[in-house]
Every structure is written in C-alpha cells, then in structure tokens.
Amino acid sequence: MTTHTGANVKKTNKEQSAVDLGTGPVWDWAAGHGPVTGALSATTGAFAVATCGTAGGMPPGWALAVGTAGALGHTAAGIRLRNAGRTIAARASSWLIGGGWTAWAMTHGPLTWEALGSLAAIGVGIGTATRSTNLYEEAREEVALAAEQRQIAAELSAERRATAAEWAARIERICGIKVRILAVETWAATTGFTIDAELPGGATYDHIAKKSAALSADARLPHGCTVTAGPGIHQGRTLIDVGTVNVLERESAYPAGYEPLSIHTGIPWGYRSNADEILTYLREQCALVVGPTGSGKTNMVHVILAGFARATDVLPWVIDLNAGSAGLPWVLPALESNGSGRPVRPGVDWLASTYEEAMLMLDTALAVARYRKVAYQDLLARENTDLLPISPSIPQIELVIDEGAEILVSNDRRMRKLAERILEVIRIARAMGVRTVLTALGATGSVLGNLMIRREAKVRAALTGGETEGMDLSKMFPGSRGLRPEQAPYKGSGFMGTPESPVGLFKVWRIKPHQIREIVHATSERHPHLDDVSIKAAGEAYVRRWDADRIAWMRDDLPTGPAEGPAVPGVEQGGETRRGLNLTALREGDEPQGGRSEEDELAAKFRKEIDATFRTATEPRRERAPRPERPERPGLNLSAFRKSEGEAPAPRERESEASEQGPEWLAEAINAIKSTGTAGMKPSAVADRVGRSRQAVREALKAAAERGELVYRDNGPRSVYLHPDHA
What we know:
By secondary structure, this protein is an alpha/beta fold. The chain folds into four domains: 33-145, no CATH class; 176-243; 267-554, P-loop containing nucleotide triphosphate hydrolases (Rossmann fold); 658-726, Arc Repressor Mutant, subunit A, CATH 1.10.10.10. The chain has 23 helices and 16 strands.
C-alpha cells in the first residue's frame, strides 16, 4: 500500500490527469450538497451513528443533543445570511428529525424494517424540502435584483425627466417654440448628452440652431461647450447635442497602433466634443482646410498625411512651394535609411517644392486621369460602374496642396497657370480617382469665391484657434447657424463638416516629428504602387521623381558629381541619369561638350540629304567670335565666363566685388523671389538657387530688405522673403 502511494506521488501532473480521466468521473469534493446528495448524506450519517451507537452502547440522548445543536447552528447561520423563514425552518427541522430518528433507532434497533422504512421516508422529505427552499431563495434573489434595477432606472429616469423639463423650458423661453422632448441620451464618454425633441408644426431645427450661443450661455456651459441642433429622424424632429465637458482644451496625441486604413472606410482627421472620431470619405470628395498662422494648420496637414500613409489604397502627392516643408518630414526618414540594409519608402509618393516640379506633378496627374478613362473601360464595364474601382492594385492619388487656395486667387502669371491645372484636376479627375486637399490661411470671400471649390470641396475644416480676422464661418459653412470662432480658442481646434457629419466643434490630434518617423517606418511596406496603366501615362516625369538631382534640395549635403540612380531606397527608377546643365558658354566650336543631341544629328542628316539631292551650295563655316571680356553686370556668375589664364575665380563666400546695391547674383535672386508670388522663398532656397553660402545670402537679402527691394515675412522656421509687388 505504501509503495503504491509513493509511485503515485512520483507521477507528473499530466500523467495524473490522464489516469484520473481514464478511471471514471472526477469528484469535486469542495462543492456543496444539492437536494439529493444532501438527503443521502443526512440519512446515511444518521444510520451510521445509530448502528455504531447501538453496537457500542451509546446513550440515545446524545444523538438527540447533537440534532438540537445542529438545528440551533443552522438557525443562527440562516438569520445571519438573511434567508427566508421557510428555509431556516426546513433546515432546523431536518436536524431535529434526524437526531430524533437516531435516538429512536438506537432504542429499538436500526436494522428493523420499520427503522429503515422511516429513514428512507425522512430522506425523501429532506430532499424535497431542500429543493423547494432552494427554488424559493433563487426567486427571492431575482426579485431583489429586479427591485434594485427598477430603483436605479427610476433614479436615472427621474434625472432624465428633470433634464428634459429643464431644456424644454429653456428652448421655449429663448427660442420661442415649444418642443416635446422624447428622449435624453448620455454620451458614452460622459462629456455631454443628446436630446431628441419633436418640433411644433411649421418649425425647423434652424429656430434652435441660430440661438446656440444664447442657449449655451443660459445653461452656463463651460467655455468650449456648445449647444448644436441638427436634423432628426425626419423634418419634424431635431437632435440637440449639449456638451458639458470641454474636451477641446486638452492636447491629445495621435492614436498609436497605425492600423491599416482604406479610402472606402474613412480616414480619421480628429475628434468631436463627444470624443467620437471624425472620418472623412474622400473617394469622390475634395477637401478644404483653412487656418491662420498659429492655429495648427501644419499639424493638421501632417495628421492628414498620416492617414494617407496608413491607407493601403492611397498615394499622396504633396505640393508645398514654401520649401516643401509640409512633406519633408515624410521623406527624410527614407533618405536617412539609405545604406541601412532595410529600404524604407517615403510616407508621400511625390513631393514638389518648386513651380516647375509642381507643374510637372499636375500635368502628370492630368495625364494619368485621362489615360485611365480610356485604358480601364473594360474594367468599368465588367464592374458595371462609372467610378474606377479603387484598390491597392489601382490606388487613388491624393494631391495635398499646402496653401493651394491662395494659388487659386493669386494674380501672379505663373501661379495662375498652376491654378488652371489644379482646377482642371478637380473638374475632370473625380471618377478616375484623383482628388485634392487644399489648405488656406483664412475663410474669406476671395478664397471661397471659386464655384469649383465650393461645389467639390464638401469636406471642410476651419481651424480658428480663437482668431476672428479672416474667418467668415458663414461662407465656409453656408446654412449653418451659431458658429463663432471664440467657441474654439485652443490651438488645433475649430469647426468641421462633411457630407456624412454636420458641422460642429472638433479637435485635431497632436502629431510630433518622432511619431511621423514611426509612422513612415511602420507603414513602409503597406504603401501601394502606382498601377502599370498609370505609370505608362505618367512617363519619365514620375519614374525619375526621386532622382538625386531632383531631390538635392531636400538635404544639405548636395551631390557634387553626376547622379548615380535613385536617391530614395525602395523606389524603382528607370532611364539614364542627368549630367548637368548644357550651357552654351561651355560649348567649343559648332558642337557642345556633351556631343550633339538627337535633334541636332537629325537636322544635320536632313541638311546633307537636301544638299545631295538639290546640289545646294555649302554654307561657309562661321568662325566663333572671340569671347569678349565679361562686363560688370548683374546675372549668373558662371565660371564659364571667367578667364582661363591669369584670373582665378574668387571664392563663393567672398563678396568683395559687390557694389552698393548688393552682389551680382542679387538680381537673379530678386527675380526668383518675385516669380514665387505670395509664397516667397526661404534664404536656404535662394542659396541653392544662386550657388552661394547661406550666411552670405542671408546678409545680402537682409540688406536688400532694408533698401526696400524685398519684404521679410517673419514666420519662425517658415520665414520667407517676398517681392514688394506680392507683399
């Protein structure tokens, strides 16, 4: 017996479990007795005590004393547990009857048929009584829980009825209409509630919406909390949102996780005062975001680009003529990963910071849209739709144009050409999946005067930051009443409306550079590739968008030699690399240094064929005149114009030859700044343009501004120089 026990101890838990499962049912010895097991335990215990007591000569009174003690103990326990009286009586009776039978059986013998029959009857009675009392206790517990729930509901209903009565009286007093409130629903975030009200005959929800400020003041709501009335289930009802906690004053970080998104399921741009996310559906809609300096507009552009980077069926193209600052944080992580062994794709698919690159991008977008209309006719017919099915294999192109609304109203000749391309993209490219997101510095009549913008940009956001100048919300959100900029005095807050969501207060998440870097790395493998049909239409301009010479402005360490292919890892390139400027000043004789171009060779061959056929006279060779001495004049300071002997060019940083009106290259810089219009140029961009050090350029531009030739717009890291004609 001992050996067997020791062997069992040495078994593992897994082996012991297998043995237990194979030998029969598992008994739970910690479980309480039910009606059947309780009756069996009582009767077998009484029979065992009576049998052993009779054999050992135990006095019968001891069994009766034990039964009495058990009855008293269960009575005290039942009272403490607040059991029902019948439950206490049944359990006490079971002990008394069991003790009485045991004493009787010890006197007359437990092994007679009378004793055994009476014990069986007692067992059945105990089981029946236990089952009955258990059911009664369960019913009592359910009744108690129901009563508690009814009490809670009554208290909540009383609170809602008080709120409904209060607001019905307030609306009647301030708005002059009597409404019947059907329901009051508290928001899940407990930051306010929604009232479902029935309007009287002939009244609309506008009667309440235009009194939003008065209702908010009468309710003594905190700053940033408003009363917003919108349409209800039908035109005779309205939903009134009442915010009681100002969630706009708190700064919330952009949500982590970066789960995949889709243009079809919505891109989050921020959250409402009830803490619900605002989803924008941009498959067919364009968007307009306005916000003055310091309102958080740049941060919102980054939030928008974060949503596009997370999407599996969107390719964002960014135009920012202010040195490309809106898209640079989404490109630099990819540039810095070059040579790390793990290629990282940029968060934006194309970035333009100059007029020429922006025109190239817009022309490419138009070419893609037009070619998609022809090439995907079979797909449209097969899907039975007139909208191109956007998917990861055929992604949507989202043009994000920072301060694009200002481009549309600019009087500059070059900006007008850009505006024409932007409006054409908006007009013709909806069905083929090319949409735009424009930003502006203010909601003014000049910005919103274009019918195309008002008609297509149904997704609109106005970041006020408490700024009232240039924020005409009635033009931004026509038909909406009671919107005031002072309701959103916090940075990153304002008003937003979409076709799916009425205009209301909202707040943009705060996204910082380290989080942008995280998103770029987390979503690198998720970005779609432009479909083959679109690449065919886009051509070389798109394929070579990340060539080193085209993105040299993005970094300080500019390449000094010829481009050696793509500068951004993970991006396929094609074609030959560029070798620099083909300047006439560098040509010797009749041919340039780099050799004849294909056009020159074709023209020469054509002339030879004409001479051979028509026997034309040979044109005498024209001797190149000796190169004149370079006069002192403003313009490009090309080393090709310098003497090859006896004159060493001065270092770029030295400006000793500058006249009182500034160095020679200043005229070129002023013309370049003038060509940018109201966007202006940063000193670093001017330095790259004229090939001088940034310190020398800053000093020269500062002196020109003091003379009135330029105007300096101080905007922190985005400070630029403007021409006086565009200041």
